[in-house]
Amino acid sequence: MRLAHLRLPNITSYKHAAILQERLVSRLLRYKALPTPSSAPPDPTILTAQFHPVYSCGRREVGNISAEQQEYLRADGKAEFVEAMRGGQTTFHGPGQLVAYLILDLKRHGISPRDYIRLLETTVIKTCGNHGIRGFITDNPGVWTTQERKIAAVGVHLRRNVTSHGIGLNVNTDLWWFNRIVACGLEGKEATSFEREGVHGKTVEAVGEEFVKNFASGIRIKDVYEVTEQKLP
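Now predict its structure.
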């Protein structure tokens, strides 16, 4: 089995990444719906990207964010606001943050939803550990460097055991954006990043490469290859 890495260059829009993610999910769902498949299933794929500033709410909040709140989040046109079907509550994505969307069939890999969340968390922890940052999990979602500082958010969606969405890991994000919200609904907590933890000079692209390799190791895949959106079916 192989793992595809779709790396979006530069900074892209949330909408563009969401469209690509949906294409990958739909491809896998179509294959699973075949009564007698005549070919191998699509390879699991990780899409990595940096977004233009955007606040997104999770599926529990869809339709419950007032027009006034949405206008506030748009920050006079500096950011977008979108509704997402992932788990979790309102969070921020923007330049300097690694977003990784993972599209795979949990049933094919023999992974339960609960174990999948743990796999994402441990992959982030290992990626942080590569740079001397001690990450850990708590009773609250995500990955933390102290009981008060959160370095990565985790939010996923499942459709017939096919995953989408994933993680947001702060590398050199402007943390001011998080100060404008109660990130993920957690009062009294704050965001941190590689830079705030004293690790400077790391690019989102390089950290993304490490995350993909660490995830591949976690599901025992040795062959990781790059794919471009132009070559997606």
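The CA atoms of residues 76 and 229 lie 32 Å apart.
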